[in-house]
């Protein structure tokens, strides 16, 4: 079974306020949309399609992006049409504004789709229901058989595409579209925590829930390369003219190696040598960008977002200050991170030790990963 996720993120989040649309706002160390994408990856769903507003961009690898429409159902339709050229068997349609969706909930929807063509999570209404007018209770309603709908709402792809193509009016969600087309939709257990960020107060609620559930990982990396012949060094992806070069099997980018090892360390995935053995000639002279991009992909596959990295280069010369901004930009590009999450700094060792004697350069790095 080919299963894909379609995450809609083209809304403007007017009810949430705050200027920036809610899916792009920070929540517990990453953006709301990052959490939603990571949740599907953590659940083992790698075929991820995002629907974005034409004004927005999202630098993330391994996802397909389509532009949305003025309404949620229009955005879903655009996403489904874009997927139709290489359709999955099943599609899970999810709000980017629901960052707390769990792997267990996603698995329940998928399991139901093995038996039926449409299934969606919901939570039974447990509070009494009133009608109100002018601040007064004007009546009560039965709560029997009432459910609060959540996402991801899952469907056989062909069936929901046909239902959206046949839809005539506005719809609250994809279950409404499916039912209008005659599909039977099974209710699966939703989760209270799977809230949709809608109003300003929902950010604080979601943050609290995330803190309770969050898996935060720290990793450290340390690397040293000795000086040899040469007229430049490559540090954090930037070529810096220097009277000597750094020796190593690859391009000897000691800073990038330390960061890469910090990410592998946070994942308990060994170090660069384990993934790219120095005994393998194909890595001779390789650009270290390959190693760093691999570590970032591995983190994403495990459902972790990189929250920040911090690297310190230890050398007397070359002077790092004039190049630090370029190094930050380059590292952020490779890691697909906002540059404010990337710190590159340097220190001397007061002329002490091998770095003080200018025999080589050392680098130490820390990475924080969040799921
Ligand atoms: N034209 C739209 C409207 C909504 N959505 C997405 O549908 C999900 C649920 O919608 P909602 O919570 O209503 O989001 P907004 O429309 O952004 O919020 P608001 O109504 O407060 O402006 C969100 O992930 C939102 O980005 C979308 O892709 N395209
Ligand atoms: C799809 C949905 O999340 C189901 O609860 C919801 O209907 C979408 O948000 P909206 O606030 O109704 O636009």
Automatic annotation (TrEMBL):
Q: Which UniProt keywords apply?
A: Isoprene biosynthesis, Lyase, Metal-binding, Multifunctional enzyme, Nucleotidyltransferase, Transferase
Domain 2-C-methyl-D-erythritol 2,4-cyclodiphosphate synthase positions: 217-369
* Reaction it catalyzes: 4-CDP-2-C-methyl-D-erythritol 2-phosphate = 2-C-methyl-D-erythritol 2,4-cyclic diphosphate + CMP; 2-C-methyl-D-erythritol 4-phosphate + CTP + H(+) = 4-CDP-2-C-methyl-D-erythritol + diphosphate
Q: Which GO terms describe its biological process?
A: isopentenyl diphosphate biosynthetic process, methylerythritol 4-phosphate pathway; terpenoid biosynthetic process
Q: Where is this region: 2-C-methyl-D-erythritol 4-phosphate cytidylyltransferase?
A: 1-216
Cofactor requirement: a divalent metal cation
Instruction: Quote the EC number.
Output: 2.7.7.60, 4.6.1.12
Query: Where is the region 2-C-methyl-D-erythritol 2,4-cyclodiphosphate synthase?
Result: 217-371
GO MF, one annotated term: 2-C-methyl-D-erythritol 2,4-cyclodiphosphate synthase activity
State where a divalent metal cation binds. Answer: 223, 225, 257
Looking at the UniProt record, the site noted as Transition state stabilizer sits at 15, 22, 249, 348
Residue sites binding 4-CDP-2-C-methyl-D-erythritol 2-phosphate per the record? 223-225, 249-250, 271-273, 347-350, 354, 357
Site (Positions MEP for the nucleophilic attack): which residue positions? 143, 196
InterPro entries associated with the record: IspD (IPR001228), IspD/F (IPR026596), IspD/TarI (IPR034683), ISPD_synthase_CS (IPR018294), MECDP_synthase (IPR003526), MECDP_synthase_CS (IPR020555), MECDP_synthase_sf (IPR036571), Nucleotide-diphossugar_trans (IPR029044)
| Keyword Metal-binding part of the UniProt annotation | yes
Hey, which pathway is this one from? Isoprenoid biosynthesis; isopentenyl diphosphate biosynthesis via DXP pathway; isopentenyl diphosphate from 1-deoxy-D-xylulose 5-phosphate: step 2/6; Isoprenoid biosynthesis; isopentenyl diphosphate biosynthesis via DXP pathway; isopentenyl diphosphate from 1-deoxy-D-xylulose 5-phosphate: step 4/6
Gene3D superfamilies listed in its UniProt record:
2-C-methyl-D-erythritol 2,4-cyclodiphosphate synthase, Spore Coat Polysaccharide Biosynthesis Protein SpsA, Chain A
* HAMAP family in alphabetical order: IspD, IspDF, IspF
| UniProt function note | Bifunctional enzyme that catalyzes the formation of 4-diphosphocytidyl-2-C-methyl-D-erythritol from CTP and 2-C-methyl-D-erythritol 4-phosphate (MEP) (IspD), and catalyzes the conversion of 4-diphosphocytidyl-2-C-methyl-D-erythritol 2-phosphate (CDP-ME2P) to 2-C-methyl-D-erythritol 2,4-cyclodiphosphate (ME-CPP) with a corresponding release of cytidine 5-monophosphate (CMP) (IspF).
Similarity remark: In the C-terminal section; belongs to the IspF family.
Query: Per its record, how is this protein called by name?
Result: Bifunctional enzyme IspD/IspF
> What would be the name of the gene that encodes this protein?
ispDF
């Amino acid at each position: 079974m080919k299963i894909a996720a379609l995450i809609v993120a083209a809304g403007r989040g007017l009810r949430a306020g705050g200027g920036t649309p809610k899916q792009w706002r920070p929540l517990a160390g990453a953006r709301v949309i990052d959490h939603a994408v990571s949740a599907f990856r953590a659940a083992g769903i790698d075929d991820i399609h995002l629907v974005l507003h034409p004004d927005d961009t999202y630098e993330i690898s391994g996802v397909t992006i389509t532009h949305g429409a003025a309404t949620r159902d229009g955005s879903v339709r655009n996403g489904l049409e874009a997927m139709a050229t290489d359709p999955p068997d099943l599609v899970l349609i999810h709000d980017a504004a629901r960052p707390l969706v769990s792997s267990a909930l996603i698995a329940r929807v998928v399991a139901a789709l093995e038996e039926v063509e449409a299934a969606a999570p919901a939570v039974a209404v447990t509070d009494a229901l009133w009608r109100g007018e002018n601040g007064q209770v004007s009546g009560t309603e039965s709560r029997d058989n009432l459910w609060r709908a959540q996402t991801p709402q899952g469907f056989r792809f062909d069936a929901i595409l046909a239902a959206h193509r046949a839809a005539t009016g506005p719809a609250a969600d994809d279950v409404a579209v499916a039912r209008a087309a005659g599909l039977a939709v099974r209710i699966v257990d939703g989760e209270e925590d799977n809230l949709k960020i809608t109003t300003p107060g929902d950010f604080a609620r979601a943050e609290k829930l995330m803190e309770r559930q969050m898996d935060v990982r720290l990793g450290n990396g340390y690397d040293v390369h000795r000086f040899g012949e040469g007229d430049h060094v490559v540090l954090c992806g930037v070529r810096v003219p220097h009277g000597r070069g750094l020796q190593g099997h690859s391009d000897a980018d000691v800073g990038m190696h330390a960061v890469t090892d910090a990410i592998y360390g946070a994942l308990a995935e060994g170090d660069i040598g384990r993934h790219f053995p120095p005994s393998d000639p194909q890595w001779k002279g390789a650009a270290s960008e390959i190693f760093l991009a691999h570590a970032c992909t591995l983190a994403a596959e495990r459902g972790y977002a990189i929250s920040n990295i911090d690297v310190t280069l230890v050398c007397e010369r070359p002077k790092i200050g004039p190049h630090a901004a370029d190094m930050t930009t380059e590292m952020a590009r490779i890691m697909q991170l906002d540059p404010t999450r990337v710190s590159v700094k340097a220190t001397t060792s007061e002329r002490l030790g091998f770095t003080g004697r200018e025999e080589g350069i050392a680098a130490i790095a820390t990475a924080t990963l969040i799921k």
